[in-house]
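Posting for a labmate who doesn't have an account.
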Amino acid sequence: MTIKMTRRAALGSAAALPFATAAAPALAAGTEANSTQAKSFQLGDFTVTTLLDGSLPRDGAKEIFGGGASDEEFARVSAENFISADTAQFFFTPTLIDTGSERVLFDTGLGQGGIQTALADAGIAPSDVDVVVLTHMHPDHIGGMMTDGAPTFANARYVTGTTEYDFWAAMDPGNRVGDLVAEKVKPLADKITFVEDGGDVVSGVTALKAFGHTPGHMVYHLESNGQRLILTADLANHYVWSFAHPEWEVSFDMDKAAATASRRNVLGQLAADRIPMIGYHMPFPAAGYVEARGDGFRFVPVSYQMMG
């Protein structure tokens, strides 16, 4: 997949940003982190904990999530799913994987203290995190990298995609995301290693390219003892509109056509192979399954499947 991205497109997109098996695998709920901001599940030998960094409403839902849809169609899909066509509720959910030998954190939140609170609810200190993976470098994913000028995760090494880092690191001053990368990510450059499509972060955690939302946006495939899960990051930013109509353009997606292709590719795999997913902006605890429906998909949030 080829990304066609200009500096002007990057500036415009950044300005819009907000602050297998035949049967579906069962994930057993953990007991150590089941609060309002942390929820743990077992995936084979891995403990997977979703961490609610924050949540907020935002008006103008169609302008954000309904590019290419008519007002009538957007209203109809919203009404069918019992949600407002005017307001979207945003969730920001980093994920922590405990492999038994390392604690791997995917994304760091908004940088307003929510990640520290959620980790504390899970019984984890920031200093306990061994690896921090950045799925991409939008502000709500890198905001928590530094606290008061010092690394939030003092003992961690960092992993991100080469394409993603190179794009933002080369951004001219004055770009919102580029400036934040310079402030939050570049100071840790000596601790960063880079991963390509198909590369492993740690054993059982593999990077997969899903370009479009940003030039180097990655999703991550987890596998332990035959159990699988995909961390979809910002592949689909809303649990209704981006699933039901993957072709509807999302204002945050920098390459709209590539983002649609990535959505269809990954969501199609999740539906066909019945692999559970965790999406950064899904309603907390952000985990669920994907069902093919018509020409699109449906997000099926977890319920008792995760109770073990």
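Reply:
Got it, the structure tokens are right above this. The chain has one domain: 35-306.
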